[in-house]
Design goal:
The protein has 210 residues and is mainly α. Helix content is 58%, strand content 0%.
Length: 210
């Protein structure tokens, strides 16, 4: 089975297994997803969802967060780890949104990358989840599963995995597929334990490069 054929089969099976896949970070405005995805680095989404509630109680909009002392942001977000660098990035990002984009999150990939603390993974997440545009979010689950299944061959660098997937994943499927990789990676094709291949919906087509 060629990579494109394998990819389409993986997409269809994961759709059936996880029909309602979506972002596990909770947000109701685009700028809040920017904040949450920065906090989620080396932290669980569940913890981020709890921490941001306190952050938004004190700083409820872009202007308030842009004006907030970095030390006050850090005091709230420190449970997410790397509190100082994350607080600095969030502060600088909100300031740039206010000064250069009238407080609005841009729907342009390069403009998103120009924001402090925003890398390709974060920019793709915003493009896909907020703006409904083609996106491929190469997080650790995506990279691990794509290598195991055989969609990519021994590629571990996020950008290289992303570029390889753009060649074989239909643009309209990329964002949802990556969310499904996260769910499948957490529940079945796990990293910290032996994968549960016996209950995997991809077991007969997976290359099993474990």
């Amino acid at each position: 089975m060629r990579k494109k054929e394998l990819t389409l089969a993986v997409i269809e099976r994961l759709k059936q297994a996880y029909p309602d896949a979506g972002c596990s970070l909770e947000y109701n405005e685009a700028w809040k997803l920017l904040v949450s995805v920065r906090l989620a680095a080396q932290c669980t989404d569940a913890r981020v969802n709890v921490v941001v509630e306190k952050l938004y109680e004190k700083f409820p909009d872009v202007d308030a967060l842009a004006a907030a002392p970095v030390e006050e942001i850090e005091a709230i977000v420190h449970p997410c780890g790397l509190g100082n660098s994350k607080a600095r990035d969030i502060s600088a990002c909100m300031k740039q949104l206010k000064e250069e984009h009238d407080g609005q999150v841009p729907d342009d990939f390069d403009a998103l990358l120009a924001l402090p603390g925003v890398g390709r993974k974060s920019a793709n997440l915003i493009m896909g989840d907020v703006f409904g545009k083609p996106a491929i979010v190469t997080d650790t689950h995506c990279i691990r599963l794509c290598n195991r299944i055989g969609l990519v061959d021994e590629i571990k660098e996020p950008k290289k995995v992303e570029m390889a997937l753009w060649k074989i994943v239909p643009p309209e499927e990329g964002n949802d597929l990556c969310h499904r990789f996260v769910l499948h990676g957490r529940e079945v094709c796990t990293a910290r334990t032996k994968p549960f291949c016996d209950k995997c919906c991809l077991s007969d087509i997976c290359k099993k490069k474990i």
